[in-house]
Amino acid sequence: MPDRSRPVLRQAVPPVRRLVPSVLLGMLAGLSSVALLASSAWLIARAAEQPPVLYLSLGVVGVRAFALGRAVFRYLERLAGHDAAFRQLAEIRVGVFERMLPLAPDGLASSRRGDLLSRFVGDVDELQNVSLRIVQPVASAVIVLAAAFAGLAWLAPGAAVAVTVVLVIGIGGAVLAQVLLAARADDRLAPLRGELQAAVVEHVQALDVLVAFGAADAGRDRIRRLGRRLERATRARASAVGLAAAAMSAVGAFAAAASLGAAQPLLEGGRIDGPTFAVLCLVPLAIAEVAAAIPVALGSLRVVRASARRVADAVPEVVPPEIPARRQGERVATSGSRSLTPAPGGRGVPAIALRGASARWPAITGDMTAPGAAGASARPALAPLDLDLVSGERVLVAGPSGSGKTTLAHVLVRFLEYGGSYRIGGVEARDLDPRDVRRTVGLVEQRPWLFDEDLRQNLVFARDTATDAELLDVLERVGLAEWAAARGGLDARVGERGALVSGGQAQRIALARAMLADFPVLVLDEPTASVDPAQADELLTDLLAAAGDRSVVLISHTGAPTGLVDRAVALGAEEIGPAGSVDEDSVRIAHGRCGERGTP
């Protein structure tokens, strides 16, 4: 199986026009560091000889210049490097999001939200180190080391050879120590962060249920165990990094000793003077400091590879055939080439016709990239179904849990691929871009998603040009005007995932969004599932009245009051009832058998 991390790692490297400035600035900072130590050693040794002050002026100026240059170049290098790295992170995040969009929501149904968030945030953030700790530091260090060794070789070739040997051995030892102590921890850091974040998110979201059943302590124990495992991995990596840094400091001392031993015969033989000997003894310390970036880079490479794999695996490599995503080589017509034509007299509402329409849910478990991980459920969730929805008609789709009602809703809005035929305004839905279908057919889901924002923000994203007057008007039409006024108007908060509103109010807000989006066809999926039976009929009456002349597919396992719908379709049954109830005689008949899925 090809390594999917490589494209992500390549994308994390800034383009040349952004990478080169940081490399050059890092090189200048490194050269300034080496030159600062060299000029300082020469100045101290030369001053000990007590020459006229004029002979020391150049050394004094050099020390000041290199000291200032090292700080300035280091600052500019960090500024340019981080700017380039953060720009790449933005592109990576956008790329991941764009790959997710065609699969959402059903293609990502098995993804754990906390783990997905960890990949999208933590693992993408880790990729900044591809540039900041690997590519740019190593490139700068190689250039500086080459220049420093050339300078040493010019002064004393033997000292240059001795320092090179010590550095090679020291770097190899530091890398080996990191591999032995932290290789496994480096590979496990990113997955452990994802597991811990997923466990925390799941625990918080299900806290009320866990407390009710006395399972909260077990959930917290699991979080603590994951936290300890992450702590051990983090400590192992930190220990290895610290040991490598200590080893490189020791390497600097050994390199200085080796250079001293190689240069001493030259000093005794009069081939070099005292200040030059001081330079040969102290410059290896600066060289070792520059070379310390190499073990750090090799250690960081293991961590960023693990994060890159998780970023790449955040979205399945192979799109499940049950998801209507655009595939390479497949022609998908857009609204510009194939239009949705409304039926005559339909006032802009297209007719819908299903013939033998069936669907399955994608079965994605475990590693989404593993062979065979993406596949269909064994039995169809929606058996072949014939259904006609003329313009402005209201149809009740009823049936027991597992009969395929929600599956039908997801087929109608093209979250799921289908078998058979599904035509909108005479155009096969399969030949249209799914986004164009969703501009015509809107879904008011069973559990509407409400953002932790005010009422205005939960409405306006459906039509960002809507004015406050239009928002208040649509709230009036769905029966929420008085409630909104009592709560402070459009500034009323709805809480995280709608925690501050009731189930019926959430359904009305969702319908208001659908009306702002002006969908010609509405699919209402179990709108009374979270409402008391005594209020269910009133809510249905208000929702269908607010729908106006739109076509409506009402999905419910409890039926609808007499007169609200034009006809009823029963899934998973041989008979259907009239508009008032699925237990009465039918007006028009459509049969459908289906398999089972865990939800309606």
Per-chain topology:
Layout: H1 5-12, H2 16-48, H3 57-100, H4 113-126, H5 128-155, H6 157-205, H7 207-212, H8 216-268, H9 274-291, H10 293-312, E1 352-359, E2 362-364, E3 374-376, E4 382-389, E5 394-398, H11 405-412, E6 419-424, E7 427-428, H12 434-440, E8 441-444, H13 455-460, H14 468-477, H15 481-487, H16 503-517, E9 521-525, H17 533-546, E10 551-555, E11 567-570
Parallel strand pairs: 5-10, 5-11, 8-9, 9-10
Antiparallel strand pairs: 1-4, 1-6, 2-3, 6-7
Helix pairs in contact: 1-10, 2-3, 2-5, 2-9, 3-4, 3-5, 4-6, 4-10, 5-6, 5-9, 5-10, 6-8, 6-9, 6-10, 8-9, 14-16, 16-17
Please tell me about this protein's structure.
The structure is a single chain. With 600 residues, the chain is of the alpha/beta class. It folds into 2 domains: 5-313, ABC transporter transmembrane region fold, CATH 1.20.1560.10; 352-363 and 379-598, P-loop containing nucleotide triphosphate hydrolases (Rossmann fold). The chain has helices at residues 5-12, 16-48, 57-100, 113-126, 128-155, 157-205, 207-212, 216-268, 274-291, 293-312, 405-412, 434-440, 455-460, 468-477, 481-487, 503-517, 533-546, and strands at residues 352-359, 362-364, 374-376, 382-389, 394-398, 419-424, 427-428, 441-444, 521-525, 551-555, 567-570. The strands form 3 sheets. The protein has a 5-stranded parallel β-sheet with strand order 8-9-10-5-11, with helices on both faces. Helix 2 packs parallel to helix 5 (128-155), helix 2 (16-48) packs antiparallel against helix 9 (274-291) and helix 3 (57-100) packs antiparallel against helix 5. The longest helix is centred in the middle third of the chain and has 53 residues, at 216-268. The two termini are 37 Å apart. Residues 327-339, 341-347, 366-376 and 574-600 have low confidence and may be disordered.
